[in-house]
Amino acid sequence: MKKILKYYKPYIPVMILIVLLLFFQAMAELSLPEYMSKIIDHGIIQGNLSYIYSTGRKMLVVSLLLMMCAIAVSFLASRIAAGTTRKIRYDLFSKVTSFSKAELDGFSIASLITRSTNDMQQIQTTSVMVLRFACFAPIMGIGAFIKAVSTSLELSWTIGLALLAMLLVILFAIKITVPKFAIVQKMVDKLNLIMNERLTGILVIRAFNAEKREEERFDTSNNDLTKLNLFVNRAISFNMPLMMLIMNFTAMLIVWAGADLVQTGSLQIGNILAFIQYSMQVIMSFLFISMIFIMIPRAMVSARRVAEVLQVETQIVDHVQAVCPEINGTVEFRNVSFSYPDAGENVLTDISFTAKPGETTAFIGSTGSGKSTLVNLIPRFYDVTGGAILIDGVDIRTIEQKHLRNAIGYVPQKGILFSGTIESNLKFGSDQAEPKDLEHVAAISQSLDFILEKPGKFDEVISQGGTNVSGGQKQRISIARALARNPQIYIFDDSFSALDFKTDLALRKALKENMGNSTMLIVAQRINTIKDAEQIIVLNEGQVAGIGTHHELMKECQIYREIAESQLDKGEM
Ligand SMILES: Nc1ncnc2c1ncn2[C@@H]1O[C@H](COP(=O)(O)OP(=O)(O)OP(=O)(O)O)[C@@H](O)[C@H]1O
Predict the structure, then answer these.
(1) pTM of this structure
(2) Which of 5, 39, 118, 550 is most buried, judging by how many CB atoms fall within 10 Å of its CB?
(3) Which atom of ligand 1 is nearest to the CA of 376?
(4) Which residues in the chain are classed under CATH 3.40.50.300?
């Protein structure tokens, strides 16, 4: 909670202003019943028209002031609530983007989205309510109560009775709704997760004719959430009519008990009306306070969920004495071992090799042998759990992360593009790239032809997730993006798999000619893709099964030979 409350600190002066305005508003509201009582007793009953007019004018001025205070408070409260939630949402986004892969895996993507949207909305709405009523309601309630008692002490028991009835209603509402709030938020998470997964996998669902089954699954979660929401909202909305009933009943009770006092001459009619208004103000204040008491626990659940993300200590951080050395690109794995968080077994064990600038180092092995995991350790998506990775002899954990990643051109296994244009995607690699640079990298990655065929050329729109380009085109644009960076180290994580043989060959040839003195690390499934590499590392169950050139491995490494035999014909071998 403290983590969230600190966001309101800069607004303390505005909050003080709100409290002052609310104080004036409450005082103004409290003065109205008294004017009303005077109009009845001294104006209407005594037929004094000029008194009615002059008091009426005063009431009008007070009402206008009251209205201005209320508008100002609403305006300021909304500003504070919107300002704080904007800042929290920004910090939430920054925090999540700083998360290592392991920390991201700890929260589901759907939950992170719910936390930064739905939960933030709860916090914002409650902030406005609290700022408007948390201070106003007690001032108003206590003030109205004092005024009511000073108007008629004999009738004050009616207010006590009304408050007792309301207290019972509110306690009941709080008891049954509050425990449900945390469950509601978790259900929203689940619904978002299902929605996210189903929309991403819509084509698979269609291909397997699984729409009905998926709809039913969605429906089950949707119904659960609807039922719970209905239950909570009904319990809350049931409050309102009950409160109204209590208010009306209290008014009746006051008139009934007050009539006797009027008859005996100890109270005037105007006083009864004033008393009714004061008691309504007390009840309304109580109602506001009760609403806040119901909303706060809900917002606290949301605030806790947001704080959970904000207070994650990012594991992969810059070393206190992080350095920014000049990087030439020699990548050395020194007895590296790695296991995923919460997974007991090592995915990589005792890996050692050196990849040199100007050379290609390739990784091959069966699926799940740890190839992607190995290359993901170089940009520090995860940190090694044993041994060390060094670049030009410097442990990467001591290099500033930004500096390290600037030296790497990473092409992920799954081509990922962002909504925008082809140009904006390529400039992701380097925002200073000139059009001729973009054309150059597009040519190397064998993308230029299909880009120029598009009506918009480099300005062609890329839709969300790059769904309007083919898998192979997506991979080639991803490669061009990495090339635009002109880095010292290239990582291609199985990035040629969606390319046909001819394009694969042309791309590798162009890469070879243009890579200069960069270090090239290529994960591949196809022997043909890596056959010419200066160094091939064969991985088997997370361990190095062989290191050498194609010819050396064909002679010495059984696993490599088996892979080659399964892919190449006799002539090629
Ligand atoms: N985020 C993760 N959390 C836990 N285990 C993981 C995670 N990612 C991968 N693994 C496991 O690590 C092992 C190695 O996976 P990795 O993706 O590195 O293999 P790979 O050789 O690249 O496979 P492929 O050729 O199929 O891409 C696998 O057993 C996999 O189940």
Answers:
(1) 0.72
(2) 39
(3) 18
(4) 321-407+489-509+517-573, 414-486
